[in-house]
Design goal:
By secondary structure, the chain is mainly beta. It has a single domain, classed as Immunoglobulin-like. The protein contains two helices and eleven strands. Strands 1, 2, 3, 4, 5, 6, 7, 9 and 10 form a nine-stranded antiparallel β-sheet that branches. Strand 1 and strand 2 form a beta hairpin. The longest helix has 9 residues. The termini are close together. The N terminus is likely disordered.
Length: 191
């Protein structure tokens, strides 16, 4: 069986479209400066924006076909104009196992039912674990505020045919973040 991701819709409920495009347009370069794509190449792509510092970037998720028929993907994250020499933790808010899990709204990330405080407890965002470790996937930006991380993510409990919404975010501190990037909402289909 093959796994394939599909974008159903994009929603930026907490950021306006003008903020998104302003963030993605910042950091202009002249014709002698090499261009780096903000959103990494991949099957499913979404912009990352930061309202607090004006940085931008993107996330891509590329499914891989595996014989076991469960979710397996390569994930790439890239940011520019982020805080220099800062470590960011990569998180996601997947909507698995509850109603409205693939309606393109990302209720979990927004704290809306069926993911609100009135529902069964679950954190809004969870960190991606490093393969074979308990530490979360992280990366550190350069002195100019650019950073990239690529990693594989497998979830044997998400079988082929599952559709779910997800939103990504990057933050510089788990308890008191001062720099946050957030992606658009998109729907993933594991085929």
């Amino acid at each position: 069986m093959r796994s394939l991701l599909h974008v159903r819709s994009i929603v930026l409920p907490s950021l306006s479209a003008s903020v998104l495009w302003a963030c993605l347009a910042c950091g202009g370069t002249d014709s002698t400066t090499p261009q780096t794509p903000l959103i990494p190449a991949g099957t499913v792509q979404a912009p990352l924006v930061s309202a607090d510092i004006g940085g931008g970037g993107g996330v891509s998720v590329t499914a891989k076909a595996i014989p076991d028929g469960y979710f397996d993907a390569d994930i790439a994250v890239h940011v520019v104009n982020a805080r220099p020499s800062t470590t960011y933790i990569v998180q996601r808010a997947p909507e698995i196992g509850r109603a409205l899990g693939n309606d393109g709204i990302c209720q979990r990330a927004l704290g809306l039912a069926p993911w609100s405080s009135a529902d069964v407890a679950a954190p809004a965002f969870v960190s991606f674990p490093q393969t074979g470790a308990t530490a979360p996937v992280m990366f550190t930006t350069s002195a100019t505020g650019e950073g990239t991380v690529n990693f594989e993510f497998k979830v044997p409990t998400i079988p082929s045919g599952t559709r779910f919404d997800v939103m990504f975010r990057l933050l510089n501190d788990m308890t008191s973040p001062t720099s946050i990037f957030q992606s658009a909402c998109f729907t993933v289909t594991v085929l």
